[in-house]
Amino acid sequence: MTSTWIPVVAGAFEREDGLWLMHKRPAGKHHGGLWEFPGGKVEPTEIPVESLVRELREELGVVIDAVDCEPVGFADNARDARQKPIVILLYRIVRWTGIPASLEGGAIEWYTPQQIAKLDKPPLDQVLAGRLFAGS
């Protein structure tokens, strides 16, 4: 059975000093040069939090326990008939092992919510950031 939508997971890493991790997509990729919450697609045999743990280990080299992933929201483009629908599930992460590094290209940086609001982001990450930091 073919899925009619693309499930994606993303991690919102928060440090104790209140900074949040963002990933700059590599040039040449879809949305290249834009900042996003790191993550990736959910594989058919995985539940979302399993995908998140796997993706963040592959992309950033960090180890995360699923119990440390708190669902905080989602965004979708289902109203855009020009694209296959994407749903991004966002998880807040406050505990991990290792130092995040950009292992699959692009760059990573730590930002305040106010700085993240000013970054160029893909549309769904713009929505996610707005919801995550509402009131900040």
From TrEMBL:
Biological processes annotated in GO: DNA repair; DNA replication
Enzyme Commission number(s) of this protein: 3.6.1.55
InterPro entries, sorted: MutT-like, Nudix_hydrolase, NUDIX_hydrolase-like_dom_sf, NUDIX_hydrolase_dom
Catalytic activity, reaction form: 8-oxo-GTP + H2O = 8-oxo-GMP + diphosphate + H(+); 8-oxo-dGTP + H2O = 8-oxo-dGMP + diphosphate + H(+)
Transmembrane segments annotated in the record for this chain: none
Cofactor field: Mg(2+)
Nudix hydrolase domain ranges (all copies): 4-133
Pfam families linked: NUDIX
Family, per entry: Belongs to the Nudix hydrolase family.
Listed name of the protein: 8-oxo-dGTP diphosphatase
Species of origin: Erythrobacter insulae
High-level lineage: Bacteria, Pseudomonadati, Pseudomonadota, Alphaproteobacteria, Sphingomonadales
